[in-house]
Structure formats: structure tokens, C-alpha cells
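Pasting as-is:
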Amino acid sequence: MKRLGIILHITPSRNFIVKLEFTPEHDLRGAKVVVEDMTVLGVVKDIIGPVASPLLVVGCSRDIASPENFKGKVAYLIEEEDLPY
């Protein structure tokens, strides 16, 4: 897992806004995002904001009933080698 950053906000349309801790080297759209206990938040929909301080827009998974409970948690990028299969 690669640490992405802190979940700052949940939009009215159920998107997580994540403050990236690095400038991405490649497009992250479509990548799965999880929290530390491997709960899937959703997938990256867009990267917004200035290049020096980018934000990720992560579409909320339908399985999450209360997305506001994740505000302030650390989001991680799930990579192929992290998958259990």
C-alpha cells in the first residue's frame, strides 16, 4: 500500500477529497483507494488543485453507509502486490 494522504472532506455527492502528500508521477484515475483496515473507499475519479498541492477526488463506494466517518483518516493506494489473490 502507498500512503496517499488525509481525507479532508466529503462532498454532498459522496466524493472523498484527499490531500495528496506527493505529486503523482502518473495518472491515478481508476486506482482503488482504501483505509488502513483495507476498507475500500472507492476509486480515484480526478486530480484537482495546484500541481504543488494536488487533491484527489475519490468516488465513494456503495458499500459505505456513512462516508463522514472517514474524515481525517489516512487514505492509501492499493497496488497489485497488496491484493490477497
